[in-house]
Structure formats: C-alpha cells, structure tokens
Amino acid sequence: MENKEVLGHVAVLLTILIWGTTFISTKVLLQFFTPVEILAVRFLLGYCALYIIYPRRLKGMSFKQELICLFAGMCGICLYYLCENIALSYTLASNVGVLICLAPLFTVILSRFFKLKKEKIGISFCIGCVIAFGGVVLISFDNQSVEFNFIGDCLAVLAALIWAIYSLLTKKLGEFGINTILLTRRVFFYGLIFILPLSFVFDFSLNQDLLFKPEVYFNFLFLGLGASALCFVTWNFAVKILGAVKTDVYIYAVPVITVITSVLILHEVVTVKILIGLALTLLGVFIAEEHGLRYIVFLFLYKKN
C-alpha cells in the first residue's frame, strides 16, 4: 500500500471517528434549535473556519467545475442532512441508521451506471459490505421490534442515495487538481445558498441569547469546526485518494463509533448482540478494502499449517 493510500485511510478514519460522535452534540442542540437552524449555523461556522485557515480565492474555475460544486453543495450539505433530519421525525433512529448505510451500495450502482472505470469493485468489497451491513442491523435493532414508516424510511433511503451522489461528485472534483480546502469551501458556499430559502419554509428564528450558553456554543463549535470544516476536508481528501466506493465503505463504521461513544459518555449498556454487531461491522469494513480478504485467508492458512 502506497503512503498516499495510507494517508487516505487515516483521513477517512479520522472523519468517521468524529462523525460517529456528532449525534450527542446534535441531540443537545435540538433542545434549543430546529434542525434547519443547526444546519445553517454549523456550516456557516465551517465556511468561516475554512476561509480563516486558507483565505485565498478560488480562481480559474470553469463553468463545468462550478456546476459540479453547486450540485455537491446541494446534495452533501443541504439535501442529505435535510432528508436525514426529517426522516428522524417520522421513523425510528435505528431505521435511519441502517438505511443510511445503503450509501455504499448506491455508490457502487451509480459508479457502474456512469461507467467510472477508476472505481474498482471486487469480490472482497461485496463480501465485506454484506457482513458490515449485517453488523449494522444487529447494532441498530438490538432489543427492538422492527417498525416501518413509509415516509420516514423512504426519506432515509433518499438520503443514502444523495450521499452516494455527493461522493461521486467529490471524486470528480478531486480529479481537477484544485486545492481540497478551497473546493470544500466552495461546496459549503453553495450548500448555504440552498439552505437559505429553507429558513423561510421551516420557520427560522434563531434565538441569539441561547448561543452564549456553554452547552450551546461548545457543541456548535464541535459541529462547525470539527464535524464540518475538518471532516469534509478530510473526507473529500480521502475520496480523492481512495475513490468514492472505497471511502463510502467506512460509513458502516459510524454506528460502531456511536455505540462506543454512548458507552463512554452516556453510560449506556452494551449487549451481546451489539458486541457481535460491532465485530461483524469492523470485520466487514476490513474485508471490503482491497487486500482485506487476502490477509484473512493468509492468516487462516498460516495458523492451520
């Protein structure tokens, strides 16, 4: 594995580690603000942070490149989070957690539909995805009866499809050889433009006094600077190096991080079913990578001999 690929894996692991803990911050902020208000403040902070870190202007963009940035902002910043948040108001969080993990499958389908030859998909990837998805199901539906809600579940599936589209658009942007921070900032800009009209539809009335509460501004800083500014740059960097398909596989690890965080911070109880789910998810993610299945077969044969 080349050093560049190692950096790609490290970048996506860092991203997933942070994204897996964002539910706590969002849960706290939902006590004070609506989902659209949280979304707007979060990405506005992220945009400002990226501008401070790298204040250069993005010049020389073609119309095609601007158009891809616009659609990436619409999908990855606005529509994905909007569909996910609305889905949570209709259906169980466990349903959303599982259905969002359809994103890697949609990424594969779309990459094949658009004939993206650089996105390699082998038997290891397919086996790993099935195992990881099974692990996510065990984690999400632990000690729960499965309930379905047509609107909520459809919105969750739509969110997964939108994220797959965003990943492929990000891969295309990475091929232009433009600075990742500048591209991410431009995507944030277009995302905020699409969020703006939603503020009128969803009764945007941000209470500025609440922003000075420690539990509010600390969580907003975490979501804005960490989960948005940092993570979208590292995610886009990973997609640029590894490809959309390989990077999206790591989405399966988000529930794993969420469970670990719940145990450490919220002191939630871990059952045997969750432990099995965690093991299967991590095993699936490992196998889905290019050489994962080879390593496992090698170790099995080595121990047998």
UniProtKB/TrEMBL annotation:
Occurrences of domain EamA (ranges): 7-140, 151-287
InterPro entries from the UniProt entry: AA-Vitamin_Transporters, EamA_dom, EmrE-like
Bilayer topology annotation: Multi-pass membrane protein
Transmembrane residue ranges: 7-26, 32-54, 66-82, 88-109, 121-141, 147-166, 187-204, 216-237, 249-270, 276-302
GO CC terms in record: plasma membrane
Principal cellular location given in the protein's record: membrane
Keywords, sorted A to Z: Cell membrane, Membrane, Transmembrane, Transmembrane helix
Transmembrane helix keyword on record: yes
Coiled-coil positions: none
Cellular localization per UniProt: Cell membrane
PANTHER family the record matches: INNER MEMBRANE TRANSPORTER, S-ADENOSYLMETHIONINE_S-ADENOSYLHOMOCYSTEINE TRANSPORTER
Protein name, entry field: Putative membrane protein
Species per Swiss-Prot/TrEMBL record: Succinatimonas hippei (strain DSM 22608 / JCM 16073 / KCTC 15190 / YIT 12066)
